[in-house]
Write a structure and sequence with these properties.
Organism: Exaiptasia diaphana
Shape: elongated
Structural class: alpha+beta
Strand content: 15-25%
Distance between the termini: 48 Å
Largest sheet: 5 strands, mixed
Order of helices and strands: EEHEEHHEHHEE
Number of strands: 7
Protein name: PB1 domain-containing protein
């Protein structure tokens, strides 16, 4: 009979001190959320993150993803387990549910109601528009024009340069990258 090593999950809240919690490998996602709710009673926790072997943050939202996290943790530490060494805790970072107001910091809206002329799917050709050639240096290299306009005018033109973006808060992580 092979005994499964005990698993210690370290819950690191945004504010406050970390809490270590010893669990069995068959724990459910709901159990983890309930434990996190005891550590962070003021927020609504809907998921949590952990760091994989590449130090990428992975979000866990289901039992299946939780079991994948646990199996990956034991696989990464299999040599320590075989040598009988104590394992470091599996660190998780709770993620509070965000209100739509907090997600939409620019106050953007999408009009989904059809207008009388929107039934036609063909796009009309623009009239009286002048296309400006890109500005270049003496060597012919394109230069980015600095614009200190407000967010409304930038978004209305549909062109945003990297120097016009401020990273205020990380909203999430995923396979496609980080959402700020």
């Amino acid at each position: 009979m092979t005994l499964s090593p005990s698993l210690v999950i370290r819950i690191i809240p945004d504010h406050g001190s970390a809490v270590d919690w010893t669990v069995q490998p068959g724990i459910s996602f709901r159990d983890v959320l309930e434990a996190v709710a005891q550590v962070m009673p003021s927020g609504t926790i809907t998921s949590f993150d952990y760091e994989d072997e590449d130090k990428d943050r992975i979000t866990v939202r289901s039992d299946e993803e939780l079991q994948t996290m646990i199996h990956g943790f034991f696989w990464l530490n299999s040599e320590k387990i075989n040598q009988g060494c104590a394992l470091e805790p599996l660190v998780i970072y709770p993620r509070a549910g965000r209100s739509s107001r907090k997600r939409n910091i620019c106050g953007l809206t999408v009009n989904t109601r059809p207008t009388p002329g929107s039934i036609n799917t063909a796009m009309p050709a623009p009239t009286n528009t002048t296309i400006q050639p890109p500005q270049t240096t003496a060597s012919g290299v394109p230069t980015a024009k600095k614009d200190t306009s407000n967010i409304s005018s930038i978004l209305s033109r549909g062109q945003v340069n990297p120097d016009q973006i401020q990273h205020l808060e990380i909203l999430g992580y995923g396979n496609g990258g980080t959402v700020y």
